[in-house]
Amino acid sequence: MYATDRCQELAHPDMANFAVSVFILVGILVSYLPQHYKIISRRSSRGLSPMFVLLGTVSGTASIANILTLPESTRDMGCCREIGGFPCAAALLGIAQIGVQWSCFFMIKLLFLIFFPHPSDSDDTESGQHDASAPTWKEAIMVLTLSMTFFVFVLFGSVIFVYGAPDHIRSWANFLGLLGSAFATVQYIPQILTTWRLQEVGSLSIPMMCLQTPGSALFAASLAVRLGPAGWSAWGIFILTGALQGCLLTMCLWFVWRDRKIAKASNGHVGNGNGISHPAGDEGSEQTPLLGNER
């Protein structure tokens, strides 16, 4: 016999909601793959704003800590002791969705650092030239340091509230949700500014944004159904990020359209959406985006 009505409800999952939740989970993973691939294939993180990467990482950390510490989530996890394995997995899909999203953005941060040009590897340094719009290695180290510091802060803070002050755990969870929403609200602003300044798409993935912009609304709706109005701090963040990402996507699509329009009037040159055009049939080497910005 189930201890609570909630556990009894979770023991009989809605298959339609389960199918939608699984679809969203897979969609989150698939949507990030084009961004991972583009950075790896270009062997460059040019075009990505260090502040965008930092804010996205700490926002994701706050979001996963928020949903893990929400009383509704801990209640559902507690029901796993009473219900079967499949109902338990269905009940925790909302947590898994945010966990996958956090992991995927963490991978973006990792690739950003791996393919960030070191000063010693830069041809511009040897020739005495320097791209003033390019981020410095100091900024990359700042991204790593601050994101890890925030992770430690959230981890220890959550442990303290869960075991030392459980009566205030909802306030802590809501604080994390508000913090994550605040970071998410400004996350795309430095990236929008960077993309506008460079006048190119760079290492940003348009397919990723095409998938994620409408996906954010679907994801938020799924979480809202699971957590209800009381879980606003968990699903509200995705409405904000979706709207801002839509603005960035619109800008990138305009750059691609602009480059193609210019290419048609420039003797058969092909615009690649990265602010650089090449003769027809010549796509340029992998290093082209790193060595030159013709604007």
Automatic annotation (TrEMBL):
Keywords of the record, alphabetical order, are:
Membrane, Transmembrane, Transmembrane helix
Compositionally biased tracts (Polar residues): 286-295
Q: Where is this region: Disordered?
A: 273-295
Name the membrane topology term: Multi-pass membrane protein
Q: Note whether Transmembrane occurs among the keywords.
A: yes
The highest taxon in the source lineage is Eukaryota
Protein localization: Membrane
Q: Which GO terms describe its cellular component?
A: membrane
Q: Please give the Gene3D superfamilies that the UniProt record associates with this protein.
A: 1.20.1280.290
In its keyword annotation, does this UniProt entry include Iron-sulfur? no
Q: Where are the transmembrane segments?
A: 15-35, 47-69, 89-116, 140-165, 171-189, 235-257
Q: What is this protein called?
A: PQ loop repeat protein-like protein
Native source species: Periconia macrospinosa
